[in-house]
Amino acid sequence: MTSAPEPSLPDTTDWTTVLDAGCDECGYRPHDPAATSDRLASARDRWRTVLRRPGVEARPAPRVWSPLEYAGHCRDLIEVLGERVAAMLDRAEPTYADFDGEQAVVEHEYWRSDPDDLAHRLDAATSRALQILDRVAPADRDRTGRRGDGYIFTVASLCQYIVHDVEHHLHDVDG
After folding, report:
1. DSSP label at 61?
2. pLDDT above 60 for 2
3. Is 72:118 a contact under the CB 8 Å cutoff?
4. pTM given for the model
5. Measured between alpha carbons, how far is 114 from 6 in angstroms, rounded to an integer?
6. What DSSP line would sit under 92-111, residue for residue?
7. What CATH number does the domain located at 28-172 have?
8. Cβ-defined contacts of 49-58 (< 8 Å, 24+)
9. Residue 30: partners with Cβ closer than 8 Å, 6 or more residues away
10. Model pLDDT for residues 25-68, shown as the tens digit of each residue
11. Domain locations along the chain
């Protein structure tokens, strides 16, 4: 696909609800934050498999991301997790700029990505996030940071939130 695809369908869901109730759509149930590294490593391996599929760049419908675009988005999310957890470990109650996943997909033109290159970038982002998560001691899990809209995450809840998002998108692409 060479030109910019149609924007994806807007998503107005408050996904923070998965932190309490889980997600019936993908089957996610809140996990022990100590398992975040293992789950991200597993997700990375599953994304590698998805990115090797033929036709990974094809959208299933005009306004639904392709597996390639979802993988790029998940790479972004894993990077955001690492950056935000590092900020929570390094300073008290940081505030984060808003993250617009649709804007990032358009800005980085993930529909043009080489699947092998994206797999390498996803690997690198995951490795960085895992190194940061290795710094998290049990006492750090309650450290907080504030999203641009005012929502307060702890290290623990941010880990759960991002893992759900990454695993949910694997569900979206049958990964």
Report:
1. B
2. no
3. yes
4. 0.91
5. 20
6. SS-B-----HHHHHHHHTGG
7. 1.20.120.450
8. 49/175, 50/170, 50/173, 50/175, 51/115, 51/116, 51/118, 51/119, 51/122, 52/115, 52/119, 56/115, 57/1, 57/111, 57/113, 57/115, 58/1
9. 18, 19, 20, 22, 160
10. 999 999 999 999 999 999 999 999 999 999 999 999 988 999 99
11. 28-172
